Amino acid sequence: MASSFSSDLKLELMVTGENAGTWGDNTNNNLNLVQQAIAGYEEIGVASSDVALVMTDKTISNARNATLKLTGTLAANRTVTVPDSIEKVYNVIDGTDHAGYTLTFKTASGTGVLLCEGNCYVLYSDGTNVVKANEYRKWRTVSAAETVQAGAKLFVETNGGAVTITLPASPAVGDEVHFVDSRYTFDSAALTVGRNSSKIANASSDLVVNTEGAAFGLVYSGSNVGWTYTEK
Question: With the C-alpha atoms ordered 25, 29, 34, 39, is the resulting torsion angle positive or negative?
Answer without folding.
Answer: positive
